[in-house]
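Case study B.
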Amino acid sequence: MKKEFLARILVILFILIAVAIPFAGQWLFSRNRINTIELHARMPENGGWSIERIDAVVDEPIHLRMTSDDVVHGIAIGKSDLPGVDIYPGEFVETTFVFDQPGQYTFYCTRWCGPNHWRMRGTIDVSGEGRPLQPEPQPLFVTLDIDIDSPPIVETVPTEQVSAERGANFASLLPTYAIDRTTYLSTSPAVLWMRLRAESALFSLSDQDIWDAVAWIWQRQTTPENLENGQRLYAENCAACHGETGKGDGVMVRNNPVWDPGNHNMDKSSGSFTGEGFVRPRDSSDPKNLLGTSPALLEGKIIRGGMGTGMPYWGPIFTSQQIENLVSYLFNFAWGFTPNENLD
Amino acid sequence: MKLPLPISNLITFFLQWIWLFVFVLSGLLILIAPLPQSSRTPQKRLIRIEASSFQFTPGQIHINPNDEVTVELVSMDVVHGLSLDGYDFELKADPGQTVSATFVADKAGVFRFRCSVACGNLHPFMIGKLQIGPNQLIIRGIALLILSIVTAFYSVRQIPQLQTRLA
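Model:
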């Protein structure tokens, strides 16, 4: 009788253990995940990031467990050089961010996930002790008071292919202001060309010679590595709208009409969420467009975005060095220089 | 009563049914005979495929065997891929970043190419067709169909004669 009682107790014990195992496992699992944020990425039309605001504390790591609900997405932190993490549908990927400075950071989607891809942005608020994020110095277009929406003024364009190598021959003839960096930043190639044309010292040079010299001035402000970085940034972030060759014929804007000042209609508000009234970006390979813009103006356009044209604002995403590289690369379209083909 | 199986009977039986053997043999011939290879010289081709959700444009491509094909994959909305059945060939393109790769079409036949990156609900149905050389299956199929129609008509003509002889 005692043995049977013992056996019954044992059976009940085993049943209890069997029932408890899944619960215990779940409890252990959730304890490991206590600091993990599960983040779902969806196309902006379907809701974008499942969490758009993350609160964090300085030096405390944030574990993110991410997956995509539809297409390939990616995540990266704006204004940092950390490479992005790709998020594939059906797979979980984990990553950890640690912030050592309090402030507001932007996280954004890094892979094109539709025409509204750039709307996939969220913020990370980092609080706590420490030196706060340095506020960016005011961009040059603000301090110089450049109207970045003014149409470019280009009176003459190069008649043949410019060559920075040829332009280097005239380096010794150029006045000092021409090779100054502030002149480069604040002046458009067309304006600098007009100033140089008016110089009496350069009277012997032909128009084309001066264009070559201007191209050389533009080229010496950057390095091949920076240009390569600019090319990569352009391909990843800009080419889908502005086109791989800068013609403004990217895949995302293919159905939009070409910009034409004649059909500009103030009654129709452009920039609605549906994209109605959007036009294609301007053709950057047309020297009449880009040669009339200064690097500071281009930087301003990139930081601020297109204000209702569908061009996103990249201020919270790119570092100033990245924007500078991008601007240097953009002028290659105007000069007609071919990009580096061997870039992957 | 002994079984009447003289040689002459066998011969007449064989002669009566020889048309059927001819038809069966020609049917087998149609099925397995090698078709003459096209004598076109292989050429280099550049094919630009635009991938959008959820289709390839063009979705049907016809090339000749041994062509050197460069495929340019352009993604129109989200990240798409292209992987070709039967060949070790795969591409992956982001919007704004055209990718291209080259392969030699040394295997003839009809191959499907599929999107290799999950691109949404209908991703599994994003399929295109690459036809290398003539479509042998359809040629053989049509030939077999014609043969079977001819056989049918012939047998209708043959069988009443057969029946009267047997009676």
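The longest strand of chain A covers residues 62-68. The remaining cases will be described in the next quarterly update.
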